[in-house]
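Re: [help] complex structure
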Amino acid sequence: MGRTPCCDKDNVKRGPWSPEEDAALKSYLESHGTGGNWILLPKKAGLRRCGKSCRLRWLNYLRPDIKHGSFTEEEDSIIFSLYNQMGSRWSVIASHMPGRTDNDVKNYWNTKLKKKLLVLGGKVKNISSEEREPTITNNANFSGIPKTEEPQDPAFSTFQPATLQTLSDVNSGLNAYNQTLRLNPDQLYSPKPLGFSNFGASSRRNFSTTVSLSQEGSSVSDSSSIAGNGYLDQDSWFCMDYGYDKIKTKLKKQLL
DNA sequence: AATCCTCACAACCGCCGGTCA
DNA sequence: ATGACCGGCGGTTGTGAGGAT
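Output below.
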């Protein structure tokens, strides 16, 4: 069961790329292009690598227009500014900086700028729904999960993550939301089914962002800096424990 | 000189969205 | 409508270099 792997992991080389591999990949791409399929590319190029690995190597390192070297003050400002506006949408931020990749920007943020921000006493502001891009839903107004009313469907009121309190305890600095979750399946299947953390989460990756917060909980003391309304999205915690696919499967079954 | 620690960044992992059969 | 496949993305981990002890 589970997702089909993108390649045969037992028969592909992993780890750092050798100069020979780089040369082979570069040479192949320069003469043939990707052919519209990264998965088949390594075979054609004579490489024992996963297609995704080839793609990443090319995009993040071998591409001729990549800018290597340290970031400038101006680039720092751009990153701060864009992060403040949209959070950790590294690919979008990188698109504003010619020659920089999302991986570059992400690494730079994680290793340098985040610390710089702390040293400066700065704080990435919370992003209100009005300020956000339209694709990001408004956490503060998240209506899919009523906090106090009785659940619309009793079947969903008992579906509570067993480990929620544990997570809350582990991250004592975080005010994890730990009341019973009551899920409304109609809301969960709306076009934007699940809510989004206000801590700069992208519209696609909110669950992982929450996991990241939990791992760095000790460094977060002000819960209001995580979410505008003072606590993490209920659904984010929920999905962190149970996984998106499990929820989809369970809800589908119950809806049938 | 050896060991430990920290840091930067390359690479991997797993997920989601889009596309197509 | 459904499922498989692929590309793209963000979070996390692994690794090597360099500094500190």
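Chain A has three domains: 11-62, 73-119, 139-255.
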